[in-house]
Specification:
The protein is of the alpha/beta class. Helix content is 18%, strand content 23%.
């Protein structure tokens, strides 16, 4: 009888590389080769992209993780892992798939620095993005450092009725994206309730309170421009977003341009913009005062998620990684903001919406 051939020695699977501060953490799944595994060899690509003959490290057969430390932040590193034969350690499998990561210095978290929220807030900032979920690195990192609403919903489609709903408590009968000339709204809004204590920062808007589209500026993403009862204030408080955001108002509404809000450009583009913008907010005198909160949310989904949208909540008292499963919507964000700033009355559907304060320790 002919002896059956030994099963092949297979490489590890599911290799991942996670960046840290001057280090990369590798993980992989056991080879499952049918042979008894003797260990694993970790290889790191050379600077020119070639692979060395000598492994970076050899791990025990029960170890499926390795930390490569002492690296240079901002430099990309690539890795492969092979499986060793227990009976003949010189035998190793073909390499696994390649995993890469770029170490980065760890920024201090803007959340979890206090356990007791203020009874009222001095400042609340909203940043509203467009149509996508947060699957990009910075957004996911921020959600882990702070809080995220795992069941947050918009009200309708298209964009404009959601912007009006989140700021007035109702879409006000709007079902399109037309300009303010088509929808002059003489109704209360969070802008009117603050009696001049608001500011709208609009990226790429050529002039204050512009009531028509221009280049990368979309007026439908600038809800303050639709309320006729604040039109005079709009001329001085609805302004182009500058290099350093002015967060001195009690309520600040921030709109990236059509590219940076991911409406016309990729999720990665929006993630890069947020990575540059939000640290300016977190390093501001207002945020360091301990009485400022930030809501990062989206206007609507891409019609694939039953209008479920992301929402990331940032404040010093928000516990890291909190992700309540309570159903919230834009009206919940409006109610919470009114409560936090001591504004009344609660506008429209905000009066019956579920507040987000207790869920996020605001």
């Amino acid at each position: 009888m002919t002896a059956s051939a030994a099963p092949p020695l297979r490489p590890p699977t599911n290799i991942t590389a996670k960046s840290g501060d001057r280090q990369v953490t590798l993980t992989w799944s056991a080879a499952g080769s049918g042979r008894k595994v003797g260990g694993y060899r970790v290889y790191r690509a050379n600077a020119d992209g070639s692979w060395p003959a000598t492994p970076l490290a050899t791990t025990a057969r029960t170890t499926t993780t390795y930390v490569d430390s002492g690296l240079t932040n901002g430099t990309s590193y690539s890795y492969r892992v092979t499986t060793l034969d227990n009976s003949t350690p010189s035998n190793e499998s073909a390499p696994s798939t390649t995993a890469s990561a770029t170490p980065q210095a760890t920024a201090a978290s803007p959340c979890g620095t206090t356990s007791t929220p203020p009874s009222t807030y001095d400042h609340v900032v909203w940043v509203v993005m467009e149509n996508h979920s947060y699957s990009a690195p910075y957004e996911s990192q921020l959600a882990g450092q702070c809080g995220s609403a795992s069941r947050m919903f918009a009200e309708t489609h298209p964009s404009l009725p959601n912007y009006i709903a989140m700021t007035s408590g109702s879409p006000q009968g709007i079902t399109d994206d037309n300009a303010p000339a088509s929808h002059p709204l003489n109704v209360p809004s969070i802008f009117s309730l603050t009696s001049g204590g608001w500011r709208s920062l609009e990226e790429s808007m050529p002039s204050n309170c512009l009531l028509t589209n221009s280049g990368q500026y979309a007026v439908r993403h600038n809800p303050a421009a639709y309320y006729t009862n604040i039109r005079t204030e709009c001329g001085s408080l609805d302004i182009p977003l500058g290099t350093t955001p002015d967060l001195s108002a009690r309520f600040t509404f921030v709109t990236p341009n059509l590219c940076n809000d991911t409406h016309d450009c990729s999720v990665q583009t929006g993630d890069t913009w947020l990575k540059g913008f939000l640290p300016k907010v977190f390093s501001s005198a207002q945020y360091h005062g301990g009485r400022t909160a930030v809501f990062l949310t989206w206007d609507e989904d891409d019609s694939s998620m039953s209008n479920q949208i992301p929402a990331i909540v940032v404040a010093p008292s928000v516990p890291a990684g909190v992700a309540p499963t309570t159903a919230f919507n834009h009206y919940s964000m409006l109610r919470s903001t009114e409560e936090m700033l001591g504004l009344s009355p609660l506008l429209g559907a905000a009066a019956t919406a579920t507040s987000m304060r207790s869920a996020f320790n605001l």
